[in-house]
Design brief:
This protein is α+β, with helices and mostly antiparallel strands and about 200 residues long. The chain has one domain: Nucleoside Triphosphate Pyrophosphohydrolase. The strands form three sheets. The protein has a four-stranded mixed beta sheet, sandwiched between helices. Strands 1-2 form a two-stranded antiparallel sheet. The longest helix has 19 residues.
């Protein structure tokens, strides 16, 4: 992985993508409450809790100071696990993303990762190792939320069953293939190109 270079011009593409996403963020986040709604902690610029709010309300108000987790999942071939969001999702249906989700109120980043990974792809991180890589923040990275980024390596024969409420499909892609899709205009969630640009070159 550490020999893989990012595609030419990808950083400029990330900046352009972020600017486009932020222009449309408030419009995209206006939706009706989800039946799977959950209480989130709201944090300050130091990632310290300053309040709570239901996820649907935070999103509809365009809040950016909640916590989330994303996992960069790789295999021995150097491919990345990239899910496609369910087309029934109210925000960015059909978009490519990493596995992960919001951190619930009172939950740690690690606990949220363990829960989300099992809920979404049935991988048990209580018995499978994972590595914390760092964080994305709205101030430094213009990310959606304060996001803990993790790396998970799986064996080629690892059986992953994705939750169809979350994803319509999952793909194993080489980084170059993923970059090409993004450059060709593939729909992605806000944080995917940001975390790829920041963390993938370090792997």
């Amino acid at each position: 992985m550490n020999q893989i270079k990012t595609a030419l011009g990808f950083q400029a593409l990330v900046v352009e993508f972020i600017q486009k996403i932020h222009k449309n963020m408030l419009m995209e986040k206006k939706f009706e409450p989800d039946v799977s709604d959950e209480l989130l902690d709201l944090v300050d610029s130091q990632d310290q809790v300053v309040g709570t709010m239901m996820r649907s309300e935070a999103f509809s108000q365009g809040k950016n100071n909640y916590r989330a987790v994303h996992a960069i999942i790789t295999n021995a071939e150097g491919k990345l696990l990239i899910p496609r969001r369910s087309y029934q999702k109210k925000t960015r249906p059909g978009a490519l993303q990493c596995v992960g989700g919001c951190v619930r109120s009172g939950e740690s980043y690690d606990a949220a990762l363990i829960r989300e990974i099992y809920e979404e792809i049935t991988l048990d991180l209580n018995i499978h190792p994972f590595q914390f890589l760092g964080k994305l923040t709205p101030e430094a990275d213009r990310s959606a939320g304060y996001v803990g980024i993790y790396k998970i390596e799986v064996e080629l024969n690892t059986r992953l069953i994705f939750n169809e409420d979350d994803f319509s499909d999952i793909y194993w892609l080489f980084p170059q293939q993923l970059y090409a899709k993004i450059e060709q205009g593939e729909n992605t969630v806000t944080n995917l190109p940001i975390l790829l640009n920041k963390f993938l070159p370090r792997l």
